[in-house]
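Reminder: ligand-aware prediction takes two inputs, not one.
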Amino acid sequence: MLYSIRMRSAQGGAHEHGGHHISGAERLITTQDLTTITEKLIQRALTHEKGRADFIRLTIEEVKPKDIITIPMLKMETYTAIDVSDGHKNACEFLANAGISKIAIDNAISSLLSLQENMRGAILIDATTGKRLDNTGMRGIRVSRMDFKDTLQAKKHFDELGYTDNHVQEALVLASKVLSAPNVVGELCWSDDPNYIIGYVSANNIYHRITKMKPLHSNQGGRVFFVKTPVDITVLQNYLERQPVLVDI
Ligand code: PML
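Here is what comes back for the chain with pimelic acid:
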């Protein structure tokens, strides 16, 4: 039996919708791991680089095995950028190679660069017209209910590659789920964590890890998903937020 565990923490507003988003986490774990992981997530919220959370919400919910689907992990390739502008230039190329229009790419980058607040979730953009498709405002679409199929195997795999940081592993799980969603053709992301400047583009089944996507100490970051239209936004949003997905490495 698996449980979906979701954590969201905020600061400056101890109520559900208030405060500034600090951190979040999404896991699908066994009953045995529930206590240990819950403790880790609370620690994460209390010791985050963006500050100590004064609001933490944990949601723990059973997931039925028959509802879970398994998908393959995206292949990872790293692009070592000279600077942020080189990182962005290459991100644009990776997205354009997936058939995403220039206006959609430009709108995505300027949306992330103009964020005044961290968003909990992602912005959906029409891959042709560049128009925003979701109506979730500053909340965004929060991708949920996903994890590695075999956490121990994943840990071993990433330890061997030297990627011990949570960022890359969590981003790979999320990006794999996002690109498996109906109508999604690409994703652009860089972290809102001020000490983390790496970002990625996922497109054409590849997670293009890009080593410089923003200046150090900037807390401006987020995610954009590029969507091919026509699309049923409710179906897509439901898949991203509710479909339990395990990622096989
Ligand atoms: C985040 O954790 O906020 C996003 C991280 C994006 C890049 C992860 C990586 O490949 O290192």
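Residues 2-67 form one domain. Residues 167-168, 171, 189, 191, 193, 198-200, 209 surround pimelic acid (CB under 6 Å). We will return to this case in the review session.
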